[in-house]
Design brief:
The protein has three helices and five strands, in the order H-H-E-E-H-E-E-E. By secondary structure, it is of the alpha+beta class. The protein has a domain at about 35-90: 2-Layer Sandwich (Herpes Virus-1), CATH 3.30.40. Strands 2-1-3-4-5 form a five-stranded antiparallel β-sheet. It is globular and about 45 Å long.
């Protein structure tokens, strides 16, 4: 069993997917803005964070069941697993 302070298996087995696409296409289509971007670690889709109005990264998880994202923000090197509510710096 995983200790609460240990990253889950989704995060420990990540092969990091980065993206050069620095926008949330869904927010752009709505004419909205985002605060921070996240990159899905299953398909590479870029979406806005939960601090953004539309929370597209979380919506993507609920629609796709893709569990993990990384921050797309410059200088940030962390991953989050929605399924296991687990965090890991890399």
């Amino acid at each position: 069993m995983r200790r609460p302070d240990e990253p889950c298996s989704h995060l420990t087995s990540l092969k990091i997917i980065h993206s050069d696409h620095y926008q949330c296409d869904q927010c752009v289509a709505l004419g909205d803005h985002w605060l921070h971007l996240r990159v899905c670690q299953t398909c590479g889709e870029v979406n806005c964070c939960d601090s953004s109005k539309n929370k597209h990264a979380t919506r993507h998880f609920h629609e796709s069941s893709h569990p993990a994202v990384i921050s797309a923000e410059p200088g940030e090197r962390w991953a989050w697993c929605y399924q296991d509510e687990s965090f890991k710096e890399y």
